[in-house]
């Protein structure tokens, strides 16, 4: 059975008008939310593309250097110095992994063979090989390595 409603008057019902106004407001609000969501999704997609590009570049830079350690002679020492000059951060990470457990003085033989260490000193005095001459090795081992350890020590004491 179908019900038919008759209009009592030609005047709009105030309750219906209020209800319609609320429905319109909700629809407008939903449209705004949908537009904002679309903007956020586009921004998120752009950021994801940038992050993936950055991570891809970072992974290329973090390739494990191919070097045979410990270094046995001066020829290989020069070769290592040249390689470090090309990508110092890769070698810094390698040296950190090899030296951090006990420090440079305890683990230096992991990088340089004892026979080579005994043939060297810092300035090359007394007819020895000058370690200072290999600037890339020196800067990576002592400069950057100690600077990072110092900064970590300072930061840990601040907090």
Look at the helices and sheets and give the structural class. mainly alpha
Cα end-to-end separation: 79 Å
Query: How do the SSEs run, as a string of H and E?
Result: HHHHHEEH
How large, in whole angstroms, is the Cα Rg? Answer: 35 Å
Taking the sheet with the most strands, its summary is: 2 strands, parallel
Helix content range: 55-70%
Query: Strand fraction band?
Result: under 5%
How many distinct beta strands? 2
Q: DSSP helix count?
A: 6
Low-pLDDT runs of 5+ residues are none
User: What shape does the CA trace take?
Assistant: rod-shaped
Oligomer: single chain
Look at the structure and give the mean pLDDT: 80
Read across the widest sheet, the strand sequence of neighbours is 1-2
Number of domains: 2
Quickly list its features.
2 domains; mainly alpha; 159 residues; 6 helices
Gist?
With 159 residues, the chain is an all-alpha fold. The chain has two domains: 13-61; 74-158, no CATH class. The protein has helices at residues 14-61, 74-86, 88-99, 104-107, 114-118, 135-158, and strands spanning 120-121, 129-130.
3D structure, described in words:
- With about 160 residues, this protein is an all-alpha fold.
- The protein has two domains: about 15-60; about 75-159, no CATH class.
- The protein has helices spanning about 15-60, 75-85, 90-100, 105, 115-120, 135-159; strands at about 120, 130.
- About 10% of the residues are buried.
């Amino acid at each position: 059975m179908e019900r038919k409603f008759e209009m009592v008057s030609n005047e709009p019902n105030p309750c219906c008008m209020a209800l319609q106004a609320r429905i319109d407001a909700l629809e407008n609000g939903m449209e705004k939310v949908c537009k904002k969501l679309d903007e956020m999704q586009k921004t998120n997609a752009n950021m994801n593309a940038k992050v993936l590009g950055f991570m891809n570049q970072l992974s290329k830079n973090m390739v494990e250097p191919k070097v045979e350690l410990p270094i046995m002679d001066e020829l290989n020492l020069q070769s290592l110095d040249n390689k470090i000059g090309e990508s110092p951060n890769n070698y810094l990470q390698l040296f950190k992994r090899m030296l951090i457990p006990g420090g440079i003085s305890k683990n230096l033989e992991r990088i340089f063979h004892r026979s080579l260490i005994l043939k060297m000193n810092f300035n090359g005095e007394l007819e020895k090989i000058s370690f200072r001459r290999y600037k890339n090795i020196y800067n990576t081992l002592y400069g950057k390595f100690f600077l990072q350890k110092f900064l970590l020590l300072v930061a840990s004491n601040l907090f």
